Amino acid sequence: MKPNLKSWRNGVETLNASSGLNLNIALLHYPVTNKNGDLIASAVTNLDLHDMARSARTYGVAGFYVVTPLEDQKALAAKLVDHWVTGRGARYNPKRCEALRLIHIRHDLEQVVADIERTVGKRPQTIVTCARPQQGSVSYASLRKELQDGTPGLLLFGTAWGLAPACMAAADIILDPVQGAGAYNHLSVRAATAIILDRLCGEFD
Questions:
Q1: 52: burial class by Cβ within 10 Å (0-12, 13-18, 19+)?
Q2: Structure pTM?
Q3: Helices within 86-150 (DSSP H only)
Q4: Hey, what CATH topology would domain 9-201 get?
Q5: How many helices (H) and strands (E) does the chain have?
Q6: Quick check: 1 pLDDT over 80?
Q7: Cys-Cys crosslink for 173: which of 127, 144, 182, 190, Cβ 3.0 to 4.6 Å?
Q8: Could you tell me which residue, 2 or 91, shows the higher pLDDT?
Q9: What is the pLDDT of residues 114-173, one digit of tens each?
Q10: How many CB atoms neighbour CB 152 within 10 A?
């Protein structure tokens, strides 16, 4: 059976908005770099889609975009989503279905931005993350405050060794890196997503 590549937007509209922020996230498989700094298109990873969708649902994110120009990778992602949203997986694990309904598969970042703009009526601010400190980056508290006025945000995460320099440079906002206990800073994108969403969307005393 040919995978269904349609958007699950209608289902998402009944599930989101618990965080109070107009926020989407996107996992870019292109343009990203490898460990040598070469521009590549990375492979879609099953665990990334499952865990990032669950984090997105937990923190009230409006949508989770999976971005790849590779047709075989789009088909792979669509097959996974179909299984958990319309197939046996939906009946086996409704909670997983609820999370994976947030996933939208798109060819490139431009399609993502256009999709959000059509939905909310305003172009989202693109927000990039990086494990390394970047000049001009903003704090989580600052970004959280800015998003609380209803400004739509699109938080971008890179696969492989991170977003390509051109993608970083084109972003509207660079977010401070997640800092751990020492010099070691090599979180998985799944872990980084959960931490960042908690800092932006979580409840605090």
A1: buried
A2: 0.89
A3: 88-92, 94-100, 109-120, 140-147
A4: Alpha/beta knot (3.40.1280)
A5: 9, 8
A6: no
A7: 127
A8: 91
A9: 999 999 999 999 999 888 888 999 999 999 999 998 899 999 999 999 999 999 999 999
A10: 20
